[in-house]
Amino acid sequence: MAGMDGEGTRESSWYGETEERWFRVLLHVGFFLLLGSSLTRFLMRHTDEGRAPWVVALAVLLAALYVTGTTPSGARTGTGIRRPWWLGAVVAVWIALVFLAPSFAWCSIPLFYLSLRTLRPPAAAALITLLTAVAVVAQLRLAGRFDLDLLLAPPAVSAIAVAVFVQMDRQTQRQRRLIADLVRTRRELAATERREGTLAERQRLSMEIHDTLAQGLSSQQMLLQAADRVWDGEPATARRHVRAATAIAEHNLTEARRFVHDLAPADLAEGGGLEEALRALAARESTGGLRVRCHVDGAPDRPLPGRVESALVRIAQGALANVREHAGAGTAALTLTYLDDQVVLDVADDGHGFDPAAALADTGGVRGHGLPAIRTRAAQLGGTLTVESAPGEGTVLSAAIPLGVAGGPPV
User: What span, in angstroms and rounded, lies between the C-alpha atoms of 102 and 136?
Assistant: First the structure.
């Protein structure tokens, strides 16, 4: 999004500069057309008059001054239209030219725009009033008699020209503000999306760690505590517990390395597929007095997406972690069922049960990363989580994931 913001800013700036450039081109072309037509008209009618050389010289000087102040080189050297003294020189030459040849009065129209672009509003208004008054006097002199139209026409043209420029300038400023607001909004949206993505990634990592490393460490702790209790009286049992803890530590090491690569479950990465991954998980969890069985019912019509298989393995890991840590169960069962439109993973145990509503509402502690995390994983793939339990009656957890899921975030 940052790149998009920069691109949008450049694009809007390009459009604004293009419009400004075309306006300046039209303004300059209009000025020289008026200047050229006025000079042509004068020369066609007054060539033999003594003032003709002065008119030609002043017209050339006015053109030179105008070019000096409006070309890119003039702007770079500091003599552009932002310099009031340059505009004053142009206006002074123009007034002298109008005094000698009133037909040059119409060149004042481009000077209106230069005044508004160069001076502050009060000074620009005063200069435009002066230009209009000079144009009125020039037209009356040219007509040789009093004419109400000539008295009113220049102020009307002046008012229209100023109104057009002011309206265009306001629209330009409004457009620039809108573009600035749009760019700012896009940047804020990009920042919000980055924050949401960071939070989502943190949540995903916390679930991954809880369902793998934390579960393995908890199992190791329980096995080592059991080994410590029977170390003197039942050394064979103690060694069996230690070997089981060692196997879990080895698996946790594999999971930790997998985090560094692509965060896929280690059982799936071994290439056996979802069913073999669940069977390996059941065999690994069958320690310390808990026996876990795995059963697969049916077969998929087509291979499941990798993110669905990964989610189901993580759901099974999280569910069995809850069974081991909280249920006090002796047996548990993993059942994977392929239906026509969904795949269902059931995790059942014969433990002491609990209140599902209270557990799902809990957001703290270990359980806060258990059932809520499982529910989040299922929801990310458009699935549902159902928990059936009651104190003293065991628990059945059922996660249903619809088949053919094409969207959803990776898990």
Answer: 10
| Confidence bin at 294 (pLDDT 50/70/90) | very high
Residue 106: closest CA among 58, 76, 142: 142
Query: Where in the chain are the domains?
Result: 2-146, 191-402
Residues 35, 108 contacting (CB under 8 angstroms): no
Mean pLDDT rounded to a whole number for the chain? 76
Sign, Cα dihedral of 109, 115, 120, 126: negative
pTM value is: 0.42
Please tell me the distance from the alpha carbon of residue 178 to that of residue 188, in angstroms, as a whole number: 15
Contact 387, 397 (CB under 8 A): yes
pLDDT of 334 = 93
SS3 content of the chain, % helix, strand, coil (to 5): 70, 10, 20
CATH topology of domain 191-402: Heat Shock Protein 90 (3.30.565)
- Residue 404 DSSP code: T
Phi then psi for residue 402, to 5 deg, are: -65, 145
Structural contact between residues 87 and 114, judged by C-beta atoms closer than 8 angstroms:
yes
Longest dimension (CA), the chain: 135
